[in-house]
Amino acid sequence: MRKVNQYYVWVFSLLVLSCASPKEEKEVVSSMPVYKDVPYIQDYSIKYNASDVDFSEVHMDRNGVIQVHSSEGMLRTHDGQFLYPGILMKDKTYRPLTDKNISGFTTYQNQFVYLDDKAVLSNAWAGSLYLSHDLPNAKILAAGDDFDFLISDGKSLQFLSKDKAPWKEEIDDQILEINYNSAKKTFWVLGAQSISSFDATTNTLKTTPQEQKLTSFALIDDKLVVGTLDGYFEIDSRTVKKIGEVQNKLPANDITSVAVVNGQLWFGSSQGAFKLRDDGKFDYYYGKRWLPGNAVKHIAQGIDGSVLILTDAGLGQIVFEEMTLHDKAQYYESQVRNRHIRLGFNSTLVDLDHGNIDSGRLSDSDNDGLWTTMYLAGEVFRYSVTKSADALQNCREAMEAMERLFSINSVPGFPSRSFERSGYIDKLHDPDRWQHSEDPEWDWKSTTSSDEAIGHIFAYGVMAELMDNDLKNRAITLIDTLMSHIVRNDMYMVDFDGKPTTWGKWNPEYVNARPKMVGDRKINSSNIIGMLQTAYHFTGKEKYKEKAFDLMDNHGYLENLMWPMKDVAPAPDDADDWSKMLSESWNHSDDEMYFVGYWGLYKYAFNDTLKTKFKESILEHWEVERPEKEGAWNIMTALTGASEFDLGEAIWYLKEHPLDMVTWDIKNSHRKDIEFIAPNFREQTTKEVLPPDERRVQRHNGNMFRLDKIGNDGGEEYSAGDIWLLPYWMGRYLGVISAPNK
Known about the structure:
Number of strands: 40
Strand order of the largest sheet: 4-5-6-7-3-30-29-28
Shape: elongated
Strand content: 25-35%
Structural class: alpha+beta
Radius of gyration: 31 Å
């Protein structure tokens, strides 16, 4: 989730984009930024679940062993890897230790040190550490230097040492935590409403009362960072005076744990954990994407650089791993192939048992064609860049599914939404769209929409341009098949019943019935012109060119598609009900259709005059979309050759996207560290969009400013095929993302 340095190579020499069509190979494009793909830090979580246990603290020793203190005694981690949670189970490693009443523990020299009702002890150092004490209810332990320890039962303090005289004193407060400052040779003691320092060299205890109710604290540099029920504040450890004001614009203000891990401040709360970044903002770890539970009990540093976050439901180990974007792409390629291919389609894994990715089933969807064409286009870009035999085979399998969408039904040129073996369709909840094929073994889904159609033409155009094998001609055949159907049916997509589908309408009678500010008028005009240009470019058939110019010259489609995106708005009061329904709020699916369609609109423009206009329209749309920091839209804008297309934000999107694509519940609406804005037509909720790994997993057609996702927690896993691989491989193909450079 994490902010890391961005590395860019700015190419100031004249550059000819590899995406230029044969007619424009001599076109010189202004210099464009290129991201150099060097390793960055990617985080993910390994979870260890437990139930009906009260937890207090967690530590890792020099051997990488993780132990947890709980109401059931000492626990240790069992199994556990990314996406495959382990458990916390009784630690029986040292039998004599299991018979002791262990009440607390810590690490010293990266070795476990335990506290029981009689002594401070350890199994390290050949078991020679054993310091008796006389606080039978002791439960808090901190290690100093030279095998010095300070312990507490919540009321009294006792100093224990191998070489120094013991010391003991009572504090008029409830003692919560003890920390040690090695540089100052000082133990710090946190009370519920006081902070004390104990100098082990002079046996001097100084106590300073505090106004707030304190909860946890940590030492960093010369400061104490102190958590409260409403934020945190800092204290100068030299003067024991408060620095500044209480910080309470946090992801969650009820601080339960404060820790310094790898030199950075971490906070636990009842609603997850968060890390203070160098820019003063926070990285937020909420929900089962990161943690078994949201009530954080303790945070500790692992010797491997990981962060151990103990919660009410188990342990979340946040791992930080160096990888390049190409490494991430390779992981996602495996994710798609291992779990998300259904009959060649790029599909979603549903009905997961609490996120168990081995428990789900592959589901059909209304948009099997669209999600698959976006994955297919990404694999074509991958093949063009790498000549990977694996990518080519992926293209072939996806193309077979796309071709069968046309052949499985009896309507000439009509692409089905999906198909499935007979007997497995949802006729109960979706009886109108599923139809029986002539083959009794198969059923197909009807009512195909315009977003499916534009996805088809986009992928086939990419394939026709970049493939150097039989797939090129097969793609051109499908372009001609679909577009012939649309032109033959008076710019409608006509279903099995002889009627236009609800959304497959590009006829002027429908398009121009919408008021100019209603998005459907602009999107349908933009898409159909791009589709007709693509068909003409690859087939050379004049009917496509003639129809496109008829729509632009005689029906205002050029004016429609040039309508400023900033002026898209709700329909006026006197508009028809359909137009009002279409324009109740911003349609993010339209954004997806626009950008997918810009490939054909810009690249295959009939002439330079139109191309200039189309570029103007694309850049104006991109300007409106910039607050979303949408990786795919930014990279797709690069096809115009624009020198500015927010490459940095596109890379941010690719890096910040979580490896875990399970649909865990997400909540951000309670946060005090984000700036909310007034309700608006675009449904933008906050001034700045949150990173992808702090919000719900979603496709490009979702609202990136949606803050919460509650329900079906861990019930599905999305495919990275359309969500991540398409923008990455398109960026590689366009030359704005370099090959991996380690």
